[in-house]
Design goal:
By secondary structure, the protein is of the alpha+beta class. Helices cover 40% and strands 24% of the residues. The protein has 12 helices and 13 strands. Helix 8 packs antiparallel against helix 9 and helix 11 runs parallel beside helix 12. It is globular and about 65 Å long.
Length: 326
């Protein structure tokens, strides 16, 4: 006799019931809820600990994808219990959040405003063109979380003070600014490709003045488009105003202002966002311009420059080659 097949809602309810039956409610409460993530609102199982304010989330959709791929319900439940144990360990290992620790752990990220309106209602943020600067609290290299208004109260700082401190920390962090072909070559090396293969597949980028800009970790690095020290450093090296392409929320691409036609770049950005970029990494469909006179960034979609033939297609190719793995 075949096992009962669960539709998504039935699967989610069954998973939650099974997890509740296997945990001790006096220590761990498990409930269904919605989790606000960058660009997304996701169904989640929320794990609440009796003696902690932390409430980690386990997302349901990836579990259901495993189920559709043939994994048994029992196997998925076992895997999820392992995740609960893992987040339990992380929660109880988490250092105490204090005003002093916040001074060293806060940093900024940047997100699309329209796609994150609900999340922005409950967190400190600052408008930046069609984007918003938000604050994250870094626990370690693998873990961080978005700072809420309630956390501001807990550490006795106003949202403005939190924003100012996070931006100050962000602007003092090391960053990567290098030719895009060098970034692609590094990714090929990490993938184990031989040097002759790398040389062959990056050679046609040599004459394109496209640079990669991100923070040292390559995570949430697009925030550098709001960092005056980083943007000024890029200007000093480039020697002219420049375009900023929102490759993803983790990095941006830098192009000389006098090279390309904005309309072609904007069309390319939108095509890549729709066809290649995961929704959680989306930043914007707009092109931006750095103005050295005002040391500011603004949307540049409406300005048209003289196009150099063939460049937009090659640029699109190289962004596709680069990919996004965050």
């Amino acid at each position: 006799m075949m096992d009962t097949f669960f539709e998504y809602e039935e699967f989610a309810e069954n998973l939650m019931n099974q997890l509740q039956a296997r945990t001790m409610p006096e220590f761990v409460q498990i409930r269904m809820g919605k989790a606000q993530k960058v660009n997304q609102t996701l169904d989640a199982i929320i794990v609440q600990f009796a003696d902690s304010d932390a409430a980690p989330c386990i997302y349901i959709a990836p579990k259901y994808q495993l189920y559709l791929a043939g994994y048994s319900m029992d196997a998925i439940i076992e895997e999820t219990m392992d995740e609960i144990q893992d987040v339990t360990d992380r929660v109880y290992e988490m250092p105490e959040i204090t005003l002093e620790s916040a001074k060293h752990s806060l940093y900024c990220a940047i997100v699309n405003t329209e796609r994150n309106q609900e999340m922005l209602e409950d967190i400190p943020h600052r408008q930046f063109e069609d984007l918003s600067l938000i604050v994250r609290y870094r626990i370690d290299d693998a873990m961080s979380f978005v700072v809420s208004n309630s956390l501001c109260s807990m550490i006795q700082m106003t949202p403005n003070e939190i924003m100012d401190l996070a931006m100050k920390n962000t602007e003092s962090m090391p960053f990567q600014y290098k030719k895009l072909q060098d970034t692609i070559a590094e990714q090929y090396r990490l993938a184990g490709m031989p040097e002759d293969y790398i040389a062959e597949h990056t050679a046609y980028y040599d004459n394109l003045a496209v640079h990669y800009l991100s923070n040292e970790s390559g995570i949430d690095g697009a925030v550098l488009m709001a960092s005056k020290p980083a943007l000024q450093k890029v200007y000093e090296q480039m020697g002219q105003d420049y375009f900023i392409v929102p490759s993803s929320r983790h990095e941006v691409l830098i192009l000389p202002k006098d090279v390309l036609d904005q309309e072609d770049i904007v069309e390319m950005i939108r095509d890549i966002n729709q066809e290649l970029l995961p929704p959680w990494d989306y930043l914007s469909d707009h092109l931006y311009l750095y103005d050295s006179r005002t040391q500011s960034v603004h949307i540049a979609d409406a300005i048209t420059q003289v196009q150099e033939p063939g460049i937009p297609t090659q640029l699109s190719d190289q962004i596709q080659t680069k990919g996004h793995t965050h």
